[in-house]
Amino acid sequence: MNKKSFIIIALAFAIGCFLGYSYEKNTYNKSPNISSTVNTNKAIKKYTLIKFMNIQMGMSYDQVKQILGDGVKDTNALDASPIQQYYIWENNDGSSIRVTFVSNRAIYKEQDNLDNSFKFNITKKQFDKIQRGMTYSQVKEILLVDGQLIKQYGSWQTNNTGSELYEWYNINKSYISILFKNGKVSSRYEENLK
Fold first, then answer.
1. E strand or H helix at 105, and its extent?
2. Which of 55, 60, 76, 166 is the most buried (most CB within 10 A)?
3. Rounded to the nearest 5 degrees, what angle is found at the Cα of 49, between the Cα atoms of 47 and 51?
4. Domain count of the chain?
5. Whole-prediction pTM value?
6. What is the pLDDT along the chain (194 residues), one digit of tens a residue?
7. 89 lies in which domain range?
8. Which runs of consecutive H residues, i.e. helices, occur in the chain?
């Protein structure tokens, strides 16, 4: 198999994984402002939303290691190989950052519960105004707050921004998820909005 075929197969697989993860339900709360990642009522986390946001698609493991320190290699992943590798950085409270590397380049990142100190009051009426094809800025104008980046899949080989999943959680635990592909709303989901 030539290098080009392998890269295409690896990217197709990663996209499939991302899309599968995009629809799962999450049970964590999200932050509107990535600069506010420390809740003074809780222990300070080693791995924060700011560090997560500093990880860019295309970074090598060593570059990510400069941001987060040594990761734990997930050797239990079914498709782990010398070319595709998974790493996790986990806080004592179970919150974590996961990064997938193909040929030592980050192609996927995901965070779980890094910041649960912010909650909103987004309504069904606001959600209904969000349409396919809108940009993140247009969505923010409707919701009036930033969402929290949960997952990102990208490519280091093209100018394609890939896919990003953002979420907004309300005080009453209702929430919305919006998947952006190439910077535009591709799909949206809400649960228990009023």
1. strand 105-112
2. 166
3. 60
4. 1
5. 0.73
6. 544 443 444 444 444 444 344 333 333 333 333 333 334 445 688 999 999 999 999 999 999 999 999 999 988 877 777 788 999 999 999 999 999 999 999 999 999 999 876 688 999 999 999 999 999 999 999 999 999 999 999 865 654 568 999 999 998 889 999 999 999 999 999 999 99
7. 3-191
8. 3-22, 49-54, 61-68, 124-128, 136-143
